[in-house]
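call fold(seq) -> C-alpha cells
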Amino acid sequence: MNAQALIDTTRRLVADHKGLLAMDESTPTCNRRFAPLGIPQTEEARRLYRELIVTTPGLGDYINGAILYDETIRQHTKDGFSFSDALGAAGVIPGIKVDIGATDLAAHPGEKITEGLDGLRNRLKEYFQMGARFAKWRAVITVGSGIPSSGCIEANAQALARYAALCQEEGLVPIVEPEVLMDGEHTLQRCAEVTEEVLRIVFKQLHAQRVLLEGMILKPNMVLPGLGCTTPTTLAAVADATVSCLRRTVPAAVQGVTFLSGGQSAELASARLNAMNLAFKSRLPWALAFSFARAVQQPALEIWRGEEANVVAAQQALLHRLRCNHAACRGEYDAAQESPAV
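ret:
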C-alpha cells in the first residue's frame, strides 16, 4: 500500500468544494430509469447516455470524481476514447462501483447484506489498470419494527471494512457507503440514533481491518425522517441532526464526507447540503460535499429521453444541478438559483 498516493488522491477528490458524480447505476437500475421515459433498454442507449455525461463541457469545474459501473468503465465515446480517459481529460478522476448488490441476510427477515468480496482483489487490479483510482461499496440498512439488528449492522460493517482494506492494498481510495434507507415511517430522531450506531460500528471495523482513514471517503445518508413520516422537519433540523451525528462518530483523520441523495428531490438535497455548510463548515475537520446520482442526473435524463437533438439541453441541465451543489458545498446555494438551465 502506498499511503501517500492514497492520501493525495483523497485530497484531490474532496478539493475546491467540489463533489463526486455517482453514475454507477447497475444495468437493471439504469433500465428501470429509462423505461418510463420511453428510452430503449439497450447497451447502446446506456452508452449514449453515459457519453452525454462524460463529454459535458465544464464537467470538471464542479466535480472531482465520477463513479462508474463495470459496463461503463469498459465503454467508449463515439470518437474511440474510453470513458475513463474522457473523464481524465476533463480533470475528473474515474472511480468504480465494486459491490455486486444487496441480498437477503440469512436469519434476519427484512434485512440485507451486500455481496462482492469473492474475487474482489483481482477485480480491483483490473479496474486500476483501466484507470480507476477510487472505488465504492454500498451497504443498506433498513429501519423498521425491531430492525436494524446488531447482526445486520455488524455484518455489513465488516464487509465495508474488508472491501476498504482490499482497495487500499491495490491503490484505490475506498468510498465507504453505509446507507440508512429513507423507506419507512421513522422519525428524524430515530434515523439519527440508527445512523450514529451504524457509523460507530463501521469505524470500529475499519480500525480493526487497519484501513488508513486519511485515504478513504465516507458516503453516508443525511439524517432524515422516513418517507412515510408525517412530522414536518426543517433544513436547520436536518443540518443539526446530521452534523451532530457525524461529529460523534467520524474521526478527524477522515478527509471528506460526500453525502448520497437517497431519493431526495434534486432541490432539497442541494438545500440540505447548503444548510450544513452554511452553519458548520468552518468548524468541521472534514469537507462536506455530495456524491449524488438521481439528484443530479434525473433532470438531464428527463430532457434527453434518448434523443440526439436533446443532448445539449440535457448537458446544460446536468451542469445546472452540479453548479447548484458546488454552491451548496460552499454554503452559497440559494433557491433563487433554481431557474431553468439555459
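The chain has a mean pLDDT of 96.
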